[in-house]
Amino acid sequence: MQLSYQQITNLIELTVTTKDDSLGCDGCLELMDQFAQAELDGTTIPRALECVRIHIEQCKCCKDEYVALMIALREVQ
Ligand SMILES: [Zn+2]
Q: How many angstroms is it from 69 CA to the middle of ligand 1?
């Protein structure tokens, strides 16, 4: 199997981002508003906010927080 340069780059990025949960709960909560808004708007998640998604997937309390925030934001709109 031959991988194109683009596929290899994607794979590397995937590996790097998957491991990168250096955000911590405090950092996650700080960026969560922006992340939720981007999700709500259906815009592409900025690279800077990808770490929020990664953290949420791995951290149950932040995920609960995020779900609650999304519900609240949806009601406002
Ligand atoms: Zn957390």
A: 14
